[in-house]
Amino acid sequence: QKIVEVITTTKRHTELILPEDTNQPADNILDKQHPQVLNYKRLPLFNWLKRQNFTDSFRNLNPLERAYTWSSCEAATRIDYIWLSEALTSGLQGASIEEAEGLTDSDHSVVLIKVWMGHIIANSSRAEVKRKDQTRTIYLYEEASQENWEEYAKELQSQLEWKRVLKQLEDDKSNAKCSTDTLNQMWDAIEEAITEAANKQIPRKKIFNTRENRRQDQGRMIASLLNKPYKKITLDRYLVQNKEEVNLVTEPNAVLNGLAEHFQNQFRKRKTKLEDMSEEWREVYRPKEWINEAWYRKLEEKIKEEEWEE
């Protein structure tokens, strides 16, 4: 109950890491040494967490592994979990169960996870840029000449040599071992070199995220505020299904006319026959006296400048 309360009352766009000891396995087959075929009841919380897009971190990376966090002379189960919200799951890099002997006084093993959070921090940075009157850089790759690309390659090579990335790669290749931290450091250096070389040699421009621009493109602004992806739908074909055959129409004019006819037919005004309906459906169509018609009178009025500012 407390877990559900915390998750449902947490602020929007907040990512959660949920460690828990449930005293009950999530999977009766994989999470128990001796599965019970009869009388097994799955904890409702597990299903609820999955509906909220939470992920069992260990099972996500080890879908078929049998590993247990508690054991006795007669039984062993995995009853300790770390659940991750959706964005954190996409950065999950490692999950394991380690013996806790000598580390804690508990008779449970330790669940360890490793999560990369750069993508979450990057998203927050872009959101911050949108809220303020700041700029972002767009590289004009289509305007780059052959000479630009040749100079870019030379500059990138120079940056990598100056940052000693290439030498470090050769050293690690000969050692045949490379830690995760070292790989992350090298990748950061490579990423920085690519950006610096592009800034020097590739045409670019800055876009100002001003309030005026946001007002002019209100659809994108609203989609951004609601955290909804902005997508365009291309309708360039449709299926015509008759009793005996199915045809795919792709000719542009035929598609345009066919889709217009489809939408006109699909969203036509319906003829409601109340006399043929049950009392339950009649109640649905019956006017609601508690609705005030005055609520709708100003819906088509333009939004004032002061309202946008608020």
Topology summary:
Layout: H1 2-9, E1 17-21, H2 44-51, E2 55-56, H3 57-61, E3 70-71, E4 76-77, E5 80-84, H4 86-89, E6 92-98, E7 110-115, H5 118-131, E8 135-139, H6 146-162, H7 165-175, H8 180-201, E9 204-208, H9 211-216, H10 218-225, E10 238-241, E11 246-249, H11 252-266, H12 279-285, H13 305-309
Antiparallel strand pairs: 1-5, 2-5, 3-4, 6-7, 8-9, 10-11
Helix pairs in contact: 6-8
Protein name: 4134_t:CDS:1
Structure characteristics:
single chain; 310 residues; alpha+beta; Deoxyribonuclease I, Chain A; three-stranded antiparallel sheet; two-stranded antiparallel ribbon; Endo/exonu/phosph_ase_sf; 4134_t:CDS:1
Summarize the structure in words:
By secondary structure, the chain is an alpha+beta fold. It has three domains: 2-116, Deoxyribonuclease I, Chain A; 135-208, no CATH class; 232-268, no CATH class. The chain is 42% helix and 15% strand. The protein contains 13 helices and eleven strands. The protein has helices spanning 2-9, 44-51, 57-61, 86-89, 118-131, 146-162, 165-175, 180-201, 211-216, 218-225, 252-266, 279-285, 305-309, and strands at 17-21, 55-56, 70-71, 76-77, 80-84, 92-98, 110-115, 135-139, 204-208, 238-241, 246-249. The strands form five sheets. The protein has a three-stranded antiparallel β-sheet with strand order 1-5-2. The chain has a two-stranded antiparallel ribbon with strand order 3-4. A two-stranded antiparallel ribbon has the order 6-7. β3 (70-71) and β4 form a beta hairpin. It starts with a helix and ends with a helix. 7% of the residues are buried. The model has no long low-confidence stretch (mean pLDDT 79).
